[in-house]
Amino acid sequence: MVRTIIAHALRLLILPVLVGSALEASVQESRPGFYEQRRLDDEPFSNEKKIADAYCHLGIENLRESSNSDIAVEQLSKAVELDETNAEYHYHLAEAYRENFEYASIFRKPFIATKVKTQLELAVQHNPSSVQYREALIQYYIFAPGILGGSYEKAHEQANVIARKDSYLGMLAHAGIYSEEGEGQRSLELYKKAMLAQPGSWEAYHRLGVHYLNIQEPDESIPLFRKYIEVAPDQANGYQCLGEAYQQKRMYGEAIAAFRTALEKDPSLAALVFRIAQLYEFKGAKTSALEHYQRYLSMVPRGRAADDAREKIRLFAR
Fold it and tell me: What is the pTM of this model?
């Protein structure tokens, strides 16, 4: 398949879904003023470590609203400048560049993509034991074009390192790579092997389910997401994935129910509040849609989606 830079922009955006984001564990989105575009310049701190940690924390907060990605890049870059050996800072800076990539012009995308790659490689270099960082780098290698450093060979090398640490996660890493290489049967065999090896682990059900969702086969993904929920009932992401599958099938009532359960598990998932509002609007339930747009604005007062929510509220008021 010919991979254009724009196509890669869309593919790179599935990175948080496939490998998970440390942001979910790092920040509580429900705090007052969470989405303010914050800067640190006037806040006193006693040493560079505290300052670097604070810049990283603020960068992560701004990443929760993608339209703040420029500010996140600025803050996380400052954290890296203060401590170039901190793998976590490099990883989050890669995520900030990835968000920035979405809104960049076609001319800027190649430059931003190489920055994503550099920061992920540095994260792995400074914390070689992290499976999360290696999996993120794998996603870059398999979705980026060769001219920007994409390489199936390099992706498999990272998967081999993961396999030496954890054979189950190694199988899943190779399965994902084979899928993108067009070796569907080999990929499916590895996913099934992983499920048999660890039937009580959720990762294989999640990743194969996401694969089917990405190729527009929600009927295949729904049983996998249900199994994901069965083995990890406390994880919001399982219900979110199930809701996305239902939405793809235009089963909006079922999608809303799944998203609402995800929000019960993790009330900080503001994007799902916006999604529920949209689904209620599709169903013609304007009162419920209005309620959820207003709720979203109370959680996320700034950004592109917030502007859209305000416009919806204005239209409903007519």
Answer: 0.79
